[in-house]
C-alpha cells in the first residue's frame, strides 16, 4: 500500500476529520477617511496574523479602501499601528494589498467571490479556490441593519452576500467558510445565509453598536476595535501547530469586555466547533502523505548519454543563451 | 348632476379623455415594453433538463479469448454488473491459430504480452481477457501493457473481478460520478487534482547554499527522457505544461534532530505540513491561472546533511519524499558531505533517474493514474525502456475524467439556468448564448459517446463542453448584482406610472358613463 499516513501530532484525532486541502483568506476593509483608521488597522492586523500562521500571500486577498500609511494626516508616515504602545507596525514592508482605494467596491467584491471577473484580471486579484478550500472572510467597516457600507457611497446587503455565497457553493468554490464581521449591527449580515458549511461570527447583534477599543493620543484617532483587539490577543498565542479550537475562539470577547454581544451562527456548520482547530481557517496546515513506494521506472535516455555529454561541452564553449524572465502577466488562455 | 349636464353638453371632454387612454395603451405601453426589455438570447432550458436527468454510464466491451468454465463466466458477469457507473458488454471467442501458437510457444510473460498485443488488436476503451493454457509457468493473473489481462482458468474470481473494475475506472471516481459533493471522508478523493483541461507542472530545484554546492543537473534532458513521453501521451486527456526553475538561497525551515542510531539528521513527520508555506510565495504560482502542480527537489543545507524523513514510528523513509494532496510533491535529495579543504563551491551531480521516478510517482497519484498495486495476487507488466503509461491506465484515467466532467457540466449548466431564471431581466448576450448552446451540444455528444464506449471521442467532447460551460458561467455579465430583482421593478415603475394613469382611469369612468347614457338615450328614442 502506498503511504497514507496523516500529519498527526501526538494524540490529536481531529486531523482525521480535516476535509480541506488549502486555505484562503479574504480580508476586506470597506471604509475610507482618516477617522476610520481603526478599520484599516483591524484588517491589517488580521492580515499579519494569517500570514504568520502560514497562509501565503498568493492565497490572501487583501482589500483596503483607503491608504492610512501614506495619508498626509499620519504623524507616523508609512506605518499603521494597532496599539497605542505602537509595538508592531502592521503595515510593514511586505504588505501586499490586492484591491486598493477605489477598487474596493461592492461589484468587485461580489465578482471576486463568484469568480466572474474580466478575463484580464491578474491572478493576484482572483479567488482561485476549489472544493477543498477553507476560506476565512473578514469584513470590517461601518454597517447597519442588513447592509455594510462600502466607500461611504454604496452598500452591500445581506441578501446579496448570501446569494454570492450560494453561487460559490453551487460551483463548488469552497469547502468551509469562516465569516467574521466587525461592524455595527453585524449580526444582520449573516441572517440570510442559506448555503451550507458557513460559520459566521459577528461582533454585535442587531440593534447594538460595535465599539472601538482605545485612542492613540499620538496619532489622534481610535486605533482598533474591541472585537478585533481581543481576537488578536487570542491569535497572538496561536502558533502554526497549535491545538486551540474554534470553540475557544468563539469565546474570545465576552460581553464585559466587548460591551456588544458577539453573535454566532452555527446552524449552517455541521462540524462541532470544539473539534475544529483554529489553524484550519487561520493557518495553512497541509495534509501530507509520505511516499512509501516509488515507481520502478527503467533508466531512460541511456543511448542519449553520449549525445548529452557532447552537447554539454559544445554548449559551454559557445556563448550561453541569455536568460530571460518568464512573462509576468498571464496571457489570456481561451 | 351639474357635472353630467356639463359632460352632456361637452362631449369633446369625453373624446379627449378617450384619446389620452388610447395613446397611453396603444402607443405608450408598447414603446415602454420595447425600450425596456433586455436582450436575452434563447437558451436550451428543456434540453438541459432532459440531459441532467439522464443517467450516464460508461460502456466497456470485454472480450474473453479462450474457454472458461461457464460458471466462472456467469459469476464474473454478475459481479461486474454490480459496478455502478460502468456497464460491461461481455463477449467470447476462441483464439485464432496465430494466437494459439503464441500462447503455446513458451515465451516469457513480457515477450508473450508484446506478441499478443500485436495479434489481438483491442480498441481504445475495451478490454480483452486471454485464457492461458494450464501448463504455463506464470502467475494466476497477469495484466499486460496494452489492455490485455491474462488469466488461468483456475484464477480466483474475486481477484479477476476486482482487477477488471480497478482497471476500468478508479472506484472513487465511479462513486463521485453519482454525487454532487466530493467524498470528504475519503482521503484519496481529496488527493487528486480537480478535473481541469490543463495543468502547469513546475519542477523546482531548491539550493539553499549555492556558494557551497554547485548543482549540475540537466533538467531539460531529464524532462525530455522521463516526463515528455508521459506528457505527450496525456495530451488528449489533460494538457500538461512543464516548466522548471532553480531557487537559490531559499531553504525549508525545518529543525531536524541528529539521530545517533541512523547517523543522519531525522526530520519527523509532524514538521512536514508547515514546510511548504514559507516557500509557496517563491515558487511563482502567482503567474498563471491554470491549476499548478509543484514538484520540489530540495538539497539540504550543509549542516543538515544527510537529511532523512522519519515516519511516525521513527523509521527512516527510503523514498525521502512526501506528497501534498492537490499541490504536488517534495523530495529531499542528499548530496555527499564536503570533504575538508575542498574548494568551494564543489560540483555535485544529481541522480536524474531517482528524481524523475519520484516526480512521476507523485504525478501518478495526483492525476490519478489507476494502479493495481493494492490488489494481491496480480502481476502487472510495465512498459520497457520508457516511463510511458500503459494503454489501460490511460483509458482508466480518461474514463474517470469524463465522469468528473459530466457531473461538473451538469452542475454548471443547471446552476446557470437557475440564476438566469431567477433574475428575469439579466442580459444574456449572444456570446454567452453561443457558449451554452455549444456546451449542451457537446455534452449530448459526450453522453452518447460514453454510452457507446467511444472513449477518445467522449474525452474530446467533454473537454470542449466543460470549457464552454465554464466560460458561460463565469462570464462577467452574469453578475446578479448588476440587475434589479423583480420586486424592485415595482418600486421603480409604480411612482412613474401611477400619477399619470390615475386621472386617465378616472376620466375613463366618465367616458363610459357618457357612452351608457347616449346608448340609453338612443334606446329611449
Automatic annotation (TrEMBL), chain A:
<dbReference type="GO" id="GO:0016255">
    <property type="term" value="P:attachment of GPI anchor to protein"/>
</dbReference>
<keyword id="KW-0732">Signal</keyword>
<dbReference type="GO" id="GO:0042765">
    <property type="term" value="C:GPI-anchor transamidase complex"/>
</dbReference>
<comment type="pathway">
    <text>Glycolipid biosynthesis; glycosylphosphatidylinositol-anchor biosynthesis.</text>
</comment>
<comment type="similarity">
    <text>Belongs to the peptidase C13 family.</text>
</comment>
<keyword id="KW-0337">GPI-anchor biosynthesis</keyword>
<dbReference type="InterPro" id="IPR001096">
    <property type="entry name" value="Peptidase_C13"/>
</dbReference>
<feature type="active site">
    <location>
        <position position="142"/>
    </location>
</feature>
<protein>
    <recommendedName>
        <fullName>GPI-anchor transamidase</fullName>
    </recommendedName>
</protein>
<feature type="active site" description="Nucleophile">
    <location>
        <position position="184"/>
    </location>
</feature>
<dbReference type="InterPro" id="IPR028361">
    <property type="entry name" value="GPI_transamidase"/>
</dbReference>
<dbReference type="Pfam" id="PF01650">
    <property type="entry name" value="Peptidase_C13"/>
</dbReference>
<dbReference type="GO" id="GO:0003923">
    <property type="term" value="F:GPI-anchor transamidase activity"/>
</dbReference>
<dbReference type="GO" id="GO:0006508">
    <property type="term" value="P:proteolysis"/>
</dbReference>
<dbReference type="GO" id="GO:0006506">
    <property type="term" value="P:GPI anchor biosynthetic process"/>
</dbReference>
Amino acid at each position: 500500500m502506498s503511504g497514507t499516513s496523516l500529519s498527526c501530532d501526538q494524540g490529536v484525532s481531529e486531523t482525521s476529520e480535516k476535509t480541506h486541502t488549502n486555505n484562503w483568506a479574504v480580508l476586506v476593509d470597506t471604509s475610507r477617511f482618516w477617522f476610520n483608521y481603526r478599520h484599516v488597522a483591524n484588517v491589517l492586523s488580521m492580515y499579519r496574523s494569517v500570514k504568520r500562521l502560514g497562509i501565503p500571500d498568493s492565497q490572501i486577498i487583501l482589500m483596503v479602501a483607503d491608504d492610512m500609511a501614506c495619508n498626509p494626516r499620519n504623524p507616523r508616515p508609512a506605518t499603521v499601528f494597532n496599539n497605542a504602545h505602537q509595538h508592531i507596525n502592521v503595515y510593514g514592508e511586505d504588505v501586499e494589498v490586492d484591491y486598493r482605494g477605489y477598487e474596493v467596491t461592492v461589484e468587485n467584491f461580489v465578482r471576486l467571490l463568484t469568480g466572474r471577473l474580466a478575463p484580464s484580471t491578474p491572478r493576484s486579484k482572483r479567488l482561485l479556490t476549489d472544493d477543498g478550500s477553507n476560506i476565512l472572510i473578514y469584513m470590517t467597516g461601518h454597517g447597519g441593519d442588513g447592509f455594510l457600507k462600502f466607500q461611504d457611497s454604496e452598500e452591500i446587503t445581506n441578501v446579496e452576500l448570501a446569494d454570492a455565497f450560494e453561487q460559490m457553493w453551487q460551483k463548488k468554490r469552497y469547502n468551509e467558510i469562516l465569516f467574521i464581521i466587525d461592524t455595527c449591527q453585524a449580526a444582520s449580515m449573516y441572517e440570510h445565509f442559506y448555503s451550507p458549511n458557513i460559520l459566521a461570527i459577528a461582533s454585535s447583534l442587531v440593534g447594538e453598536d460595535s465599539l472601538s477599543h482605545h485612542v492613540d493620543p499620538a496619532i489622534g484617532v481610535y486605533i482598533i476595535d474591541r472585537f478585533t483587539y481581543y481576537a488578536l490577543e487570542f491569535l497572538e498565542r496561536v502558533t502554526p501547530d497549535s491545538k486551540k479550537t474554534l470553540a475557544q475562539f468563539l469565546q474570545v470577547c465576552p460581553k464585559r469586555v466587548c460591551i456588544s454581544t458577539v453573535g454566532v451562527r452555527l446552524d449552517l456548520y455541521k462540524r462541532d466547533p470544539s473539534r475544529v482547530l483554529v489553524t484550519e481557517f487561520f493557518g495553512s496546515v497541509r495534509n501530507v502523505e509520505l511516499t512509501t513506494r516509488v515507481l520502478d521506472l527503467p533508466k531512460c535516455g541511456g543511448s542519449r548519454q553520449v549525445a548529452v555529454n557532447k552537447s554539454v561541452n559544445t554548449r559551454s564553449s559557445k556563448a550561453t543563451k541569455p536568460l530571460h524572465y518568464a512573462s509576468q502577466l498571464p496571457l489570456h488562455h481561451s | 348632476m351639474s357635472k353630467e349636464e356639463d359632460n352632456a353638453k361637452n362631449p369633446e371632454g369625453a373624446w379627449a379623455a378617450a384619446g389620452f387612454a388610447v395613446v397611453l395603451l396603444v402607443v405608450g405601453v408598447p414603446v415602454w415594453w420595447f425600450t425596456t426589455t433586455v436582450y436575452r438570447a434563447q437558451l436550451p432550458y428543456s434540453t438541459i433538463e432532459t440531459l441532467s436527468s439522464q443517467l450516464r454510464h460508461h460502456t466497456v466491451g470485454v472480450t474473453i479469448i479462450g474457454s472458461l468454465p461457464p460458471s466462472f463466466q456467469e459469476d464474473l458477469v454478475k459481479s461486474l454488473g454490480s459496478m455502478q457507473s460502468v456497464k460491461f458488454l461481455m463477449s467470447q471467442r476462441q483464439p485464432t491459430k496465430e494466437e494459439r501458437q503464441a500462447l503455446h510457444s513458451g515465451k516469457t510473460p513480457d515477450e508473450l504480452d508484446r506478441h499478443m498485443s500485436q495479434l489481438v488488436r483491442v480498441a481504445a476503451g475495451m478490454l480483452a481477457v486471454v485464457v492461458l493454457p494450464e501448463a504455463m509457468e506464470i502467475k494466476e493473473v497477469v495484466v499486460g501493457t496494452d489492455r490485455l489481462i491474462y488469466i488461468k482458468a483456475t484464477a480466483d474470481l474475486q481477484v479477476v473481478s476486482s482487477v477488471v473494475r480497478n482497471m476500468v475506472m478508479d472506484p472513487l471516481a465511479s462513486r463521485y460520478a453519482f454525487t454532487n459533493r466530493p467524498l470528504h471522508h475519503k482521503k484519496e478523493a481529496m488527493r487528486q487534482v480537480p478535473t481541469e483541461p490543463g495543468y502547469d507542472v513546475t519542477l523546482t530545484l531548491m539550493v539553499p547554499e549555492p556558494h557551497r554546492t554547485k548543482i549540475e543537473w540537466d533538467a531539460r534532458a531529464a524532462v525530455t527522457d522521463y516526463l515528455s513521453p508521459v506528457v505527450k501521451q496525456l495530451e488528449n486527456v489533460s494538457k500538461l505544461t512543464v516548466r522548471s526553475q532553480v531557487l537559490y538561497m531559499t531553504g525549508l525551515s525545518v529543525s531536524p534532530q541528529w539521530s545517533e542510531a541512523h547517523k543522519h539528521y531525522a526530520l519527523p513527520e509532524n514538521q512536514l505540513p508547515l514546510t511548504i508555506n514559507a516557500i509557496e510565495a517563491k515558487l511563482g504560482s502567482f503567474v498563471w491561472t491554470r491549476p499548478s502542480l509543484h514538484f520540489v527537489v530540495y538539497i539540504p543545507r550543509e549542516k543538515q546533511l544527510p537529511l532523512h524523513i522519519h515516519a511516525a514510528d521513527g523509521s527512516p523513509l527510503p523514498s525521502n519524499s512526501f506528497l501534498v494532496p492537490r499541490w504536488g510533491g517534495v523530495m529531499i535529495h542528499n548530496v555527499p558531505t564536503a570533504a575538508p579543504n575542498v574548494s568551494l563551491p564543489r560540483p555535485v551531480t544529481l541522480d536524474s533517474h531517482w528524481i524523475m521516478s519520484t516526480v512521476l510517482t507523485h504525478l501518478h497519484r495526483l492525476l490519478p493514474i489507476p494502479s493495481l498495486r493494492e490488489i494481491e495476487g496480480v502481476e502487472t507488466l510495465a512498459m520497457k525502456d520508457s516511463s510511458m503509461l500503459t494503454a489501460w491506465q490511460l483509458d482508466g484515467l480518461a474514463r474517470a475524467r469524463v465522469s468528473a466532467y459530466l457531473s461538473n457540466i451538469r452542475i454548471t449548466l443547471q446552476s446557470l439556468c437557475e440564476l438566469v431564471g431567477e433574475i428575469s431581466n439579466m442580459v444574456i448576450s449572444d456570446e454567452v448564448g453561443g457558449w451554452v448552446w455549444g456546451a449542451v451540444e457537446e455534452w449530448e455528444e459526450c453522453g452518447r459517446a460514453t454510452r457507446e464506449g467511444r472513449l477518445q471521442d467522449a474525452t474530446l467532447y467533454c473537454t470542449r463542453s466543460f470549457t464552454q460551460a465554464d466560460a458561460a458561467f463565469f462570464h462577467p455579465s452574469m453578475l446578479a448584482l448588476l440587475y434589479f430583482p423583480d420586486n424592485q421593478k415595482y418600486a421603480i415603475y409604480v411612482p412613474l406610472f401611477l400619477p399619470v394613469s390615475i386621472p386617465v382611469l378616472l376620466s375613463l369612468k366618465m367616458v363610459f358613463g357618457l357612452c351608457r347614457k347616449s346608448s340609453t338615450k338612443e334606446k329611449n328614442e
